[in-house]
Amino acid sequence: MITPKYEWKKQDLPEKENVDEIATELGLSPLVTEILVARGQDTVAKIKRFLEPTSESFYDPYQLFDMQRAIERIQDAIVNEEHITVYGDYDVDGLTSTAIMYEALLQLGADVDYYIPDRFQDGYGPNKEVYARLLEQGTELLVTVDNGVAGLEAITYAKEQGLDVIVTDHHELPAQLPPAYAVIHPRHPKGDYPFADLSGAGVAFKMAQAMLEEIPEDFLDLAALGTIADLVSLTDENRALAKFGLVALENTLRPGLLALYELAGLNEKEITEQTVGFTLAPRLNAIGRMQHAQIGVELLTTLDEERAQELAKKAQALNAKRQEIVEKITTEALAKVAKAPGHLVDVVAGTDWHEGVLGIVASRLVEKTGRPAVVLNLANGEAKGSGRSVEAFHLFDALDGHREFLESFGGHHMACGVTVLQTNIEKLQQILDTEAKHQKLDQAKAQALAIVSSLSLSEVDLNLLDELAKLAPFGTGNELPLFEINDHQVVSAKAIGKNNDHLRLELKNGATEITALAFGVKEELPELLQAPADIQFVASLAKNEWRGQVKPQLLIKDLSLAEKHAKVVIERKVKLTQEMFLRPVTYGFFNPQLAQKLRPHLPALAQCLVFDKNLTTTDLDELVLVDLPANLTQLEFVLKRVRPKTMRVHFYTKKQEVLLPTRAEFGKVYKLMQRYQKITFPDDLAALAKTCALEDDQALLILKVFFEAGFVTINKGILSFNASAKAHRLEDTPSYQSQRAKQQVVATLLKSDEGTLKHWLSARS
Q: 3-class DSSP state for residue 535?
């Protein structure tokens, strides 16, 4: 049985009254407003600031502690023609931080170069030996970007040698800060910066803003790359950086980026946060994973188009090689995990496993198994690699108290780098399993997956996608909305992809036909393809553009195969007959008056079950649903509590269906009331209906809605037009919502085909 990898947790939606007021004032859909309010954007002012960042969204850089001191030192260095070195890092955030700082200093006329540490020789962050070499080469001022706060030893050495170091960083602050000339950090213990979650590129951008005395628009493309790739919170100032930066990326003149776009097959006018995260960032990261990353900064800063093409091809080739190596090691690592079951944390090691990609492999293992993983390369008697974790297991805490067994170690809650002697690998496994028990990982639930709400397939359209797009760019703190998709029939299911490791579902609900894609489900495919109708899933909404046509599609985030459901027999009835009540089974009623009327006609051994709010969980052999519920929520409530082996549905109703009037029809009646001001009720109802080409029931519904909205008043049978009524959404009135609910009942339970109705009922039983 295929079960979800995550715990599906529906979002707590805010009070409807507050949402409706905000939605009306801002012209947003209720769904988008609900999402915003639930995410803390709970006032009109906050939402405006969130959706429409401006130049005022960028804080004064001098609010960062030590900024004034750092700027004055740089100005002195430029005046005195001192040689400045920007000391960066080899990931995307580090490369873009370096490029921003380097170009800003160049604009000021500084004598400046940059240095990117070698992942395999220098390691991460400040390095005493590298600092010594830079001193020998003439560096007189060192500016770190995306690193430095943990460089106590190296920066102490630099100070002893008379080398000033300005640190710009955003990583976790140590107990003791290094003795740098200045430390620029959004969470500096002596500072009070309004936003704590800047990336390394974001901090470098603020430094450039202070140096250049204006918002450096030329660096917005780089700042967006670093901010999005580093998975920092995309809220507040970071949202402004990302939103403006994505526009800058669409219009960039950087030859290196344009060359990358071309090689990756990207349309430069359609760059999104997804493009950055899944296309651009991996190519830039691949440089530092596979070799020295110094050329990464050159790629971002060169003005030579020929050189840009050369470097972009290099990045493309390195990324392709990285992908190939990751796939190979992941396959080998998964095989090792399968041979050693029973661990709470997986520790795997292999020879000739490229150290630059072991973090990615560990992440792949976590995705596949749901367990933390440490992946190690064996060489020269040591095992060196990376670990990745889950929310329920603090990886750093687990290893921090066992440093006597570790040759080197560093990290945080969700990730670590570690080196042990090969003879201590088994000890490392024992330590992690023991610590996992201490942290009660074996009792932890699956990681939560936030779901905005459930959607019927028929509700998924391009209008909804356009509404949700107002929330972009998505990322940490502003996650891509996920929905549980219901009310669909699986028309076809097949494996796709070069290695047949993805799933494509063709779904249908009435006239709505949508494709759903699930990636990386090769192991689960045989079981999924055997019972596609039983697949339940959570998905995000996306656009699929093909040959000039744009259609919505679903990207499945998590799925499961539903447990076996009740056998459903569809026998919809338009009238009641004695033959419907001959068998000694349980007959269920939504209408208590109908139940009271029919109870005497049921067989002696039959059960009569009236569905009310006190309904308890009940197991039955067979349940007959006699009549129609007032709304779908009522039916879903029943299906969660009554568990029959067989469910027979009649869904009888004697009421005629009242079609919900269109907006134009509401408008006709409104204009008529505005013209005549008063009508006598109910005497004039038929004439009003005829004048507006409506059924009597439709006209009555419109007048009820107008009364509830305050557009008309009634006194002694006289309906009067209320010219002073405030604006009010008709869709929010009780009568409109009740009628819409009834129409949903009719569409879902009476007008759907048998296959769609069976699937709808089975998915909820």
A: strand
Answer yes or no: are the C-beta atoms of 685 and 675 closer than 8 Å: no
DSSP for 592-652, written as a single string? HHHHHHHGGGS-TT-EEEE--TT---EEEEEEEEEE--SSHHHHHHHHHHEEEEEEEEEEE
Q: Is 526 helix (H, G, I), strand (E, B) or coil?
A: helix
CA atoms of 52 and 246, how far apart (whole Å)? 14
Residue 250 to residue 244: CA distance in whole angstroms = 10
Contact 199, 170 (CB under 8 A): yes
Question: CA of 514: how far to CAs of 220, 463, 520, 537, in Å?
Answer: 37, 15, 20, 14
Q: Cα–chain-centroid distance for residue 446? A: 17
Q: Residue 754's pLDDT band (boundaries 50, 70, 90)?
A: confident
**Residue 762 C-alpha from the chain's centroid:** 28
Count Cβ atoms within 10 A of the Cβ of residue 425 and give its class: 0-12 exposed, 13-18 middle, 19 or more buried: middle
| 735 has pLDDT over 80 | yes
Residue 645's contacts (CB-CB under 8 Å, 6 or more residues apart) are: 566, 567, 620, 621, 622
- Give the full edge-to-edge strand order of the sheet including 164-168: 111-115, 83-87, 141-145, 164-168, 182-184
CB atoms within 10 A of CB 366: 20
Whether the Cβ atoms of residue 49 and residue 57 lie closer than 8 Å to each other = yes
Question: Using one digit for the tens of pLDDT, what is the confidence trace for 20-59?
Answer: 888 889 999 988 999 999 898 989 999 999 999 999 999 9
pLDDT mean over 407-430: 91
Rounded Cα distance between 87 and 91, Å, is 13
Q: 234-248, pLDDT tens digit by residue?
A: 999 999 999 999 999
Query: At 498, is the pLDDT very low, low, confident or very high (cuts 50, 70, 90)?
Result: confident
Question: Model-level pTM?
Answer: 0.74
- Confidence tier at 211 by pLDDT (50, 70, 90): very high
Distances (CA, A) of 388 to 365, 395, 442: 9, 8, 17
* Average of per-residue pLDDT values in the chain: 92
**Over residues 445-449, mean pLDDT:** 84
DSSP lists the bridge partners of residue 555 as 517, 540
- pLDDT at position 17 is 64
Q: Model confidence at 563, in pLDDT bands (50, 70, 90)?
A: low
| Residue 379, helix vs strand vs coil | strand
The token pair at 50 is: 């969130």
Q: Which of 99, 150, 95 is nearest to 117 (CA)?
A: 95
| Residue 114 confidence (pLDDT) above 90 | yes
Distance CA 606, CA 707 (A): 45
What distance in Å separates the CA atoms of residue 26 and residue 676, rounded to the nearest whole number? 33
State the pLDDT at residue 296: 97
Is residue 462 within 8 A of residue 549, CB to CB? The reply is: no
Q: Rounded to whole angstroms, how far apart are CA atoms 762 and 532? A: 13
Distant-in-sequence, close-in-space partners of 255: CB < 8 Å, separation ≥ 6: 302, 303, 304, 305, 307, 308, 309
Residue 174: per-residue pLDDT: 86
Residue 632: burial class (beta carbons within 10 Å; 0-12, 13-18, 19+)? buried
Q: Tell me the C-alpha distance between 611 and 631, whole Å.
A: 13
At residue 564, the pLDDT reads 63
Instruction: Give the mean model confidence (pLDDT) for residues 223-235.
Output: 95
Q: Please return the burial class of 533, using the count of CB atoms within 10 Å of its CB with bins 0-12, 13-18 and 19+.
A: middle
706's enclosing H/E stretch is helix 696-709
> Which residues are within 8 A (CB) of 430 and not within 5 positions of it... i.e. 6 or more apart?
none
Residue 326 is predicted with a pLDDT of 96
Distance set, CA 439 to CA 342, 348, 363, 446 (Å): 17, 21, 20, 14
- As a whole number of angstroms, the distance between CA 598 and CA 581 comes to 9
DSSP letter string over 86-143?
Answer: EE--SSHHHHHHHHHHHHHHHHTT-EEEEE---TTTT-SS--HHHHHHHHHTT--EEE
Q: Which residue, chain included where needed, has tokens 């596979």? A: 290
